[in-house]
Amino acid sequence: MTVKKPAVKKVAAKLKKAEVKKVAAPKIGEPRQEISWREVKKAEPVAVVKAEKKPAVAAARYFEAKGGRKTAIARARVFTKGTGVVVNGKDYKDYFRTLRLQKEVEKPFEAMNITDRVSAMVKVSGGGIVSQAEAVSHGIARALVVYNGEFRKRLRKEGLLSRDPRMVERKKYGLKKARRAPQWAKR
User: Fold this and answer.
1) Of 153, 167, 146, which is closest to residue 73 (Cα–Cα)?
2) What are phi and psi of 151, to 5 degrees?
3) Which domains does the chain have, with CATH numbers?
4) What is the pTM of this model?
5) In DSSP terms, which residues pair with 63 in a beta bridge?
6) Residue range 70-83, pLDDT digits in tens
7) In whole angstroms, what is the distance from residue 88 CA to residue 86 CA?
């Protein structure tokens, strides 16, 4: 027995016509509804609408630079208009929850005292949350130097232009970790 699949165009047309329906998830302790395969075939497709709230960053002139720490890499864009920092589509205070990490991201702007004049949009990947925050700070500092070359001296003095070179040491063969040798027994 072969099952006929509906044409792609027909399904797309049904999706356009379909109303958006909210389906409530079953509550704890409630039995799940069992649906037969025939009912699933007959059911109208439900269009899923996903509302994404993205922070607004002014589409203005920007200066781009790359920052890094361990295996985290951040691509930072510093805009001449607007205020605030957006990291991976979220406000930096939502992305970096702890106060220490938020201060790390704010460091370059506070060092130059230009918090209210510029904004930044950063895409960061790899590493952990702490190394991502340090990579973001490094990327923003480098982008500020591209924005204004006179910032270099003060940012260098604050230590924001140096990439922290410390990395995890690689594991060597014959050892359990980078330097940890297997337990040795005399007899």
Assistant:
1) 167
2) -75, -15
3) 62-158 (3.30.230.10)
4) 0.66
5) 78
6) 999 999 999 988 88
7) 7
Closest CA to 54 of 86, 7, 28: 86
DSSP output for 136-147: HHHHHHHHHHHH
Taking only the tens place, the pLDDT of each residue in 130-159 is 999 999 999 999 999 999 999 999 999 999
Which tokens go with 15?
A: 């999706």
Three-class secondary structure of residue 61 per DSSP = coil
The DSSP string of 69-98 is: ETTEEEEEEEESS--EEEETTEEHHHHS-S
C-alpha to C-alpha distance for 83 and 77, rounded to whole angstroms: 13
Residue 150 main-chain phi, psi, to 5 deg: -75, -15
Token readout for 86 is 């957006």
For the chain, strand residue ranges (E) read 62-69, 72-79, 84-87, 90-91, 119-125
